[in-house]
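Example record

The entry below shows one chain as it appears in the dataset: sequence first, then structure tokens.
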Amino acid sequence: MKARVILKGLALILSLALLGYLFNASDLGSSVNEAWIDARVRGHGVNGALLFLLMGGLFTAIGLPRQIIAFLGGYAFSVTLGTLLGALAALVGCMLSFFYARFFGRDLLRARLGERAGRFDRFIHDHPFSMTVLIRLLPVGSNLLTNLAAGVSSIRPAYFLSGTALGYLPQTLVFALVGSGVHIAPTLKLALAVGLFLVSGALGAYLYRHFRHGQSLDAKIDAELEEAAPSSHESTRQP
């Protein structure tokens, strides 16, 4: 094993250990709640918004569900601003874990996520932007593992990050609405959020089936052409 790979692996382990120590030694572990938002973010203008982005980015980068950040964004700000800041915070976290995997822990993570990264590569190969949007629309899977798998895959950052930004918006809107102080009946607000969530999930499922059908159809056509090619070639050789 090359010394560079060993050093990167050690640096990765040490940095994660340091991050865990700082997380446990500080009050960050208990800060992701409404009380912390009230004390540090809500009503603090630009400084509060920047602190929310920093906190949201760091927490989603280490695996906190982005839906919680979206909920707190809706709680701290309006639905519109909470949706935008919640999606941006999740995108910051995505960038941190993606580039961390790509440039810092790629060799080490490939051994752990190699098969997952391979499936990701095959899934997004033909339409990287569209398929990334699709992955983000589906309400399944681990956000952190997707970011790490993408980091060790061959996808270009521009496609992955732009597709992620667009795909994050529907679910972020749903949870920002739930967390917001919009003055509508709680039952109506919950029903609206559930409806938006189902529409987002249904759209993702429809696109998934559509793309998979197209891929399987293309594969069948290619297979038939490959089978037909030798016989056609042989027929041209006959007198």
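Notes for this example: The CA atoms of residues 111 and 210 lie 32 Å apart. Residues 213-226, 228-239 have pLDDT under 50 and may be disordered.
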